[in-house]
Amino acid sequence: MLTAPEERATPAEIRKKSGESITIRWVDGHTSTFAARYLRGRCPCAQCVSETSGERLVSEEHIRPDIALEAARTVGNYALHFSFSDGHTTGIYSFDYLRRICPCEECA
Amino acid sequence: MSEAAITESKVLDALRSVMDPDLRRDIVSLNFIRNMKIEGGTVSFDVNLTTPACPVKDRLREQSRQAVLDRVPGVKDVRVNMTAEVRRPPAPETGRIRGVKNIIAVGSGKGGVGKSTVAANIAASLARSGAKVGLLDADIYGPSIPIMMRSKDEPEIKDQVIQPVNAHGVKLMSMGYLSGEMPLIWRGPMAHKALQQSLLGVNWGELDYLVVDLPPGTGDVHLTLVQTVPVTGAVIVSTPQDVGLQISMKTLRMFQQTKVPLLGIIENMSYYVCPHCGGRDEIFGHGGAALAAESLGVPFLGEIPLDPAIRKHSDAGMPVVLAEPESASARALAELTGKLAQQVSIQAFRSVPLTIVEE
Fold first, then answer.
1. What is the pTM of this model?
2. B233 is in an annotated binding site
């Protein structure tokens, strides 16, 4: 049973445009496009966000502009996993999180 | 009307009036009708359901027969053959276990609620209905399934692939096998590796259902499971008291957070029927799970009595659904397994395929 908030964070289609970006069309019709650098700068893993304080340790300005998204795969039913060209692979981006960080004008 | 007037399309039109109560569509558009033959006034066809454990099988058979008799002139006899083919939900290809159609996780909020007993009986009951079933004992703290399924064999390893043990028609693998007689004192990373091996390094073959008996609560094993394979759905086993204490809710929320659909809640040790006087005693209270399920919008699959026969047969190595299939407890277990199989079918129809399209 999908309730409204669940629909918001349920992907209908996921497209990866070479190393540049990931585009998710959500079940509710909204579309989010995430650039590689934007995603890398918002990695939710414990190396990028302090586990004790919740403070962000690695953000977008620390990331080189030509960073590429080398690979993307699904994690179970609930998240995406990315491999970036700087060798960073530890982030698991849940669909809830991805919808929350949608960079479009409407959401930002 | 002449017999020549009976056509396949007239029969299909008549069958469009028969609805599958769970999938809420008619059995023709669901593509259930197969092998139709019309010979004189006799019409025969198969109704290919989504699970052999379907609890409404007899009702659908009768409705199909009646619909054709009533609506197609000239029909004198209708022969309905019920078959089943478990459908696979469209899930991502990555991490899938080849040949395994559905993965059902069985969890609980705390230990001692009879989760493993319920898992063993669900697996045995599905197998008894004709489905191809695997059972993975992932309870690293107390792997007890091998005792309940009377399997003394250790699995063989052929070409680095573990061959599951056959127990009562169920393909069985236990994480307990990986350590022999030693207790499983594992840190997170070890449990993670062991579960991945038990899921992906086992020759499961073709399975309609793989039932995974999880450790109680929430932890490493749960996370590894949901991250390694697309889980079709999860079942929570609780006692009436456990729900009152809100312990099961944590497990439930974990599945929600990791987008594992909740197939339902089962209330175990629901009541006790005194063998001497026949009086019913609700030792842990009663009905808590049904109420919790209703408030959460999750199907309530059924209640299982606190019955010494369930324990006795488990200890002797044969699930009660096989040892005493006509007993009240076995019937309760078989009935809730049917409801569970329905929920799996609904999930398989509802889920959206999740793949990443490379441009």
1. 0.73
2. no
